[in-house]
UniProtKB/TrEMBL annotation:
Keywords: Cell membrane, Membrane, Transmembrane, Transmembrane helix, Transport. The keyword DNA damage does not apply. This is Peptide/nickel transport system permease protein. One of its GO terms (cellular component) is plasma membrane. PROSITE patterns: ABC_TM1. Belongs to the binding-protein-dependent transport system permease family. It is found in: Cell membrane. Signal peptide: none annotated. InterPro entries: BP-dependent_transpt_permease, MetI-like, MetI-like_sf. The keyword Transmembrane applies. It comes from the Bacteria.
Length: 483
């Protein structure tokens, strides 16, 4: 079999058009930047009757050219994707083959956007996100990797090979290289090349998304549970409680983040069982948060509160014990029959480290928001009605702090993704054969000047996910400020 080119036979007539439009777009953007400094913002002309007519002048034409060329580029990209999905393998080359592998993701994205836009007026802040172009782009990038992780992790789709399998003769092969002797039913190409251990770069990239999507959002969510549970009473009650919790938060924040991560994930620290004991403490906070939330909400309805609270807490405690209990560790409190799942020790260490490092920052943000919001009239009205402190904190103050917290949550997932990549790059926490993006970048950097593709592919994946989270946060910030 012949190696695949990037665009195959389909690109012989479409590639020139694409590059012409791309250069027009680059030139138009450059003109727009220069025009903002050189050209007047408006063009004025004096009419015969003495009146003045103002128009956008050349700036408007340049702006329209930028928009038209960008839309044309996007249309050409969609054409490449559609052609790759509906034509035989190789017709649109590597781009088409990769697009075809991501077919379930494209379908899920289209369905998500169609449904969300149709009902956006009923979906609150999430629906308003689709009024922001930046927010929609960020959401699309985030959901692309989310759906990729779902289809890879749950349905074993998209990936063309096992991420750990080494195939003879495929070491450091370029993108589009065919297998020497593919077995029956085996995908015939390494679409994005092979790495220094003859593993498929494309399959390792998509499998790496599972690790990032599992750890980063959930670790950030747990950090928010810890920060909110401690930040609300610290800001509301103040006094010695506030001083003590603020001192502990400042103590953790005094350490450099990377150094703290390095200390927590080193084998010597892991061998002492410290991360397991930290997990035992930190994983309790979601139970506390949900328990107090439900109790404060249904306190005046004991017939509903008691069974609801008992059932929810029973399930959460079972999940909690399953999370902290594992064979061969310092904590093994559940028999194997009752243990719902076993978290990989490397993932648990990284997860706990992320929660521990992010919690103090979330605590300080929540504490500051509470100090500001508790002076509002609706809080005083709730106090006058005789509502309890926890009801006021969780059902009056917290909902009105959701805007800044949602924005920070998106940004913090991006920071966590970068931290996970940094840990993997230094070979800390996760196993060395792990397909996470940081480890893959570290493996590929050793021959970066000769074979750049093993490092560039996961680096681009990491960049696109973090960019999507940042754009999503910007879009949410814009829409929350309009409320």
């Amino acid at each position: 079999m012949e190696p695949l080119t990037w665009t195959g036979s389909f690109g012989t007539f479409l590639d020139p058009i694409f590059w012409v439009v791309a250069w027009v777009f680059i030139a138009a953007v450059a003109l727009q930047i220069i025009g903002s400094w050189v050209l007047p913002p408006v063009a004025e002309s004096i009419n015969l009757d003495g009146t003045i007519t103002r128009t956008m002048g050349p700036n408007l034409a340049i702006r329209m050219l930028v928009k038209a060329s960008l839309l044309t580029l996007l249309a050409l990209c969609v054409l490449y994707i559609l052609a790759g999905m509906f034509t035989p393998l190789g017709t649109v080359g590597i781009i088409g083959a990769v697009a075809a592998q991501f077919a379930p993701v494209w379908i899920a994205l289209v369905v998500t956007f169609l449904v969300s836009i149709s009902y956006k007026r009923r979906l609150g802040l999430y629906g308003k996100l689709f009024d922001s172009t930046i927010g929609m782009i960020g959401f699309a990038l985030l959901m692309f990797w989310f759906y990729t992780a779902v289809f890879v992790g749950l349905f074993d789709m998209i990936a063309t090979h096992d991420p750990l399998t080494q195939l003879s003769g495929m070491k450091n092969k370029l993108p589009g290289t065919p297998l020497r002797s593919p077995e029956e039913g085996q995908f015939s190409y390494y679409l994005l090349g092979g790495d220094n251990l003859a593993r498929d770069v494309f399959s390792r990239m998509v499998n790496g998304s599972v690790i990032v999507i599992v750890i980063a959002p959930f670790a950030t969510l747990f950090a928010f549970m810890v920060g909110i549970t401690l930040g609300l009473p610290a800001g509301y009650f103040g006094g010695k409680l506030d001083a003590l919790l603020s001192f502990l938060a400042n103590l953790v924040l005094a350490f450099p983040v990377i150094l703290l991560f390095y200390l927590l994930v080193t084998p010597e620290i892991v061998a002492t069982g410290i991360p397991n004991y930290m997990a035992m403490v930190l994983f309790v906070f979601p139970i506390i948060f949900v328990g107090v939330l439900l109790n404060s909400r249904f306190y005046t309805r004991p017939k509903l509160r008691t069974p609801l609270l008992s059932g929810v807490l029973l399930v959460m405690i079972w999940v909690y014990l399953s999370a902290i209990s594992a064979d061969g560790t310092v904590i093994n409190v559940l028999p194997g029959v009752m243990d719902l799942f076993n978290i990989n020790s490397g993932i648990l260490v990284v997860f706990v480290s992320v929660v521990f490092v992010n919690s103090p920052t979330v605590f300080r943000i929540v504490r500051g928001l509470v100090l500001d919001i508790q002076t509002r009239d609706y809080v005083a009205a709730a106090q006058t009605r005789g509502e309890g402190p926890w009801y006021i904190m969780l059902w009056e103050i917290l909902p009105n702090a959701r805007g800044p917290l949602i924005v920070d949550f998106c940004l913090r997932i991006g920071y966590t993704t970068i931290l996970l990549g940094t840990l993997g790059f230094f070979g800390l926490g996760l196993p060395p054969e792990s397909p996470d993006w940081g480890t893959t970048i570290n493996d590929g950097r050793k021959l970066l000047s000769i074979y750049p593709h093993p490092a560039i592919v996961p680096a681009f994946a990491l960049l696109s996910l973090v960019l999507g989270l940042n754009l999503l946060a910007d879009g949410l910030r814009e829409e929350s400020l309009r409320d």
